[in-house]
Design goal:
single chain; 3-stranded antiparallel beta sheet; 7-stranded mixed beta sheet; alpha+beta; 292 residues
């Protein structure tokens, strides 16, 4: 069966058919999917019954892989291997985390608009999220098209944004939630890193805003002014006409381009199991070293 991609979002996002990830994909099929990402930025694959090994093998078609270093779980408490991000509300025994568990409170940051790994010197390229178990309702993931958001800015604001460099840190996004209890090792690990505010896609050439709740400063600007500006840009970029909401089904796999979209999880009943596994493809290098 040939690969087919149909648009499902208001101005982006596509659904892929003709692919069985469990059986593996050829290099030609991966290239076709990669080209679909250039256009849609978010691709949905339904009914992909896979394990972590098959998910990881599929992800490797799209570039070098990240390790999971964006959580606060200690090594002895990890439920999944270091090449898989645990996007769940479960402990290593498979039990739902208590409402006041430090790991759960930290992970609530996923409900803020963000781009994966923008707090790393080399951020994420693609994220691939597989739904192994989902709650009865809620828990959708929303995506905001940062290309369309850039295009809709007035020329004066575009010019103001064009050469700005922001500083991103997990400490910033978690502080927005009132989560500030970090030890010295965590504070050192998540020191702010610089990222361009405006990025050019290396294949399509389209410009996009590069925002996240992790962004807390603009180089050369007073912090209050920088945060106000970032807040205003985020409000602009997440207007409903730029947003696609994905309603999860079990065994969905959703793949997105962190260079051109932001995303956030939505609320759900925290006593129900929500178990998603994420593999993450690293970008080609720090954004300051990429084509402006």
């Amino acid at each position: 069966m040939a690969i087919s991609i149909r648009q499902v979002g208001p101005c982006f996002a596509g659904e892929v058919t003709g692919v069985d990830i469990a059986k593996g994909v050829s290099s030609d099929e991966a290239a076709e999917i990669d080209a679909g990402m250039d256009r849609h930025a978010v691709l949905v694959f339904r009914d992909q019954v896979i394990d972590d090994d098959r998910q990881y093998a599929f992800s490797c078609h799209f570039g070098p892989m990240e390790t999971a270093t964006g959580d606060i779980a200690q090594a002895e408490d990890r439920r999944l291997p270091m090449n898989i991000n645990d996007i769940s509300n479960l402990d290593k025994r498979g039990e739902v985390l208590a409402r006041d568990d430090r790991r759960r409170l930290f992970n609530l940051g996923n409900m803020l608009w963000h781009s994966d790994s923008s707090f790393k010197p080399t951020p994420a390229k693609f994220s691939l999220l597989s739904a192994r178990a989902i709650p009865g309702e809620g828990g959708n993931t929303e995506f905001a098209d940062m290309r369309a958001a850039w295009d809709a800015l007035d020329a004066k604001t575009q010019a103001e944004c064009r050469d700005l460099v922001c500083e991103h840190s997990l400490l910033t996004s978690r502080s927005l939630l009132g989560f500030a209890e970090f030890n010295a090792e965590e504070r050192l690990k998540w020191q702010p890193v610089p990222q361009r505010l405006v990025r050019r896609h290396p294949r399509s050439g389209r410009l996009s805003l590069y925002l996240a709740s992790h962004a807390g400063a603009i180089r050369g600007w007073p912090v209050p002014e920088a945060r106000t500006f970032i807040h205003d840009l985020t409000e602009h970029a997440t207007q409903r006409q730029f947003v696609h909401a994905h309603q999860w089904r079990q065994w969905d796999l959703v793949m997105w381009d962190n260079r051109t979209v932001m995303h956030r999880a939505r609320r759900y009943d925290h006593t129900q199991v929500r178990d998603l596994h994420r593999t993450t493809v690293a970008d080609s290098g720090p954004t300051l070293e990429q084509m402006a």
